């Protein structure tokens, strides 16, 4: 094995996405990660992965050792993916079916542990397998560029290729908060998800704290789930059912004195304490209260990231996932506003000012179906934009960095609207 001489170092020392993901999944340095070579002497190999397509451009780590599971990690949920990604995954999934031979062209990552230390102490995948019932599980992980706002995720499968769970790893303040919030939201959902028009959602299987991380394991999506087309009309009845938690609505109440305004005020003050932009947020919340304080609006719950790419259809029901930003006490209509804003920003690449215009257009067009009159529509649009800037700040403040599409552009947009 002379190739050992130039074998690359531990991938956890890399600055790229592969480094970031392997540090998150294998934080314990007693676990050895060896690329292309065997496990160090005295270590026991516990898992092997194909690094696809190469170390330098790694996109997926595919578990070796159980071809049906390896293929499933690439083929499951492919209908949710964009056509190009789907084609690549289908090809590599076909190779994975052939077992290690099929994946032989790709570098192999060997995971090994020293003798005498219980594996469950060292390996997240072992902890998850025991939390999910004790049968061995294979994990696949996607590699994305390092981003303080992203969570590494593990897809967990049985050795026969049956999906067992989807694990999200919160590894810094920003992502730990998101994972915790999603777990809390999913825990509360079964009580309401049976109601008419309410979307169904994969449930929470388990949540655990592990090596400074928060890990939520979510039930697998049904394998036949299909994504909602990105240009579909908004699902108003479903948004309303989420807002009302499957029950009747609550009577409208003025913005002044609401828990919502109190929360925005508190968060804006906090943002002011942490940087100059926050002063502008405090002024924006005050202007919101001045302009809309007397407006009476229905308050309710929201999904918090209601966009077509977090929605699917299965067995005639709408399926919603990604509940990380969900919460109570917002004006009914916020999910509609977010749907409009994000489709413009993300799908069409519009600047914040155009995306804000898309919010106005959506609330004007669909607001009556949510019981919103003209004054409520203005409150929903203006309030949502302030909420969105505060979310941007919260993520930045928790270490995720500023979203350049939203800061400072969104504050400029808000100020301009308030001065109009
Ligand atoms: N429970 C699940 N089972 C299988 N795949 C899932 C599950 N949840 C999410 N996914 C897939 O992973 C993608 C990202 O997950 P999501 O919850 O939307 O997180 P993010 O915050 O990264 O957008 C989804 O769009 C979906 O394709
Ligand atoms: Mg998502």
Features:
elongated; nine-stranded antiparallel sheet; about 425 residues; Aminoglycoside 3'-phosphotransferase, Chain: A, domain 2; alpha+beta; 13 helices; disordered N terminus; three-stranded antiparallel sheet; about 40% helix; binds adenosine-5'-diphosphate; binds magnesium ion; 2 domains
Describe the structure.
This protein folds into two domains: 2-171, no CATH class; 226-419, Aminoglycoside phosphotransferase (APH), C-terminal lobe (Aminoglycoside 3'-phosphotransferase, Chain: A, domain 2), CATH 3.90.1200.10. It is built from 13 helices and 16 strands. The protein has helices spanning 17-25, 67-75, 83-97, 119-122, 124-131, 173-188, 236-243, 259-274, 277-292, 334-347, 352-366, 374-400, 409-419; strands at residues 32-35, 43-52, 60-63, 108-114, 138-142, 153-157, 163-170, 204-210, 213-218, 226-227, 253-254, 296-297, 299-302, 311-314, 317-320, 327-331. It has a nine-stranded antiparallel beta sheet with strand order 1-4-2-3-5-6-7-9-8. It has a three-stranded antiparallel beta sheet with strand order 10-14-15, with no helix packed on it. Strands 11-12 form a two-stranded antiparallel sheet. It starts with 16 loop residues before the first helix and ends with a helix. It binds adenosine-5'-diphosphate and magnesium ion. Adenosine-5'-diphosphate binds next to loops.
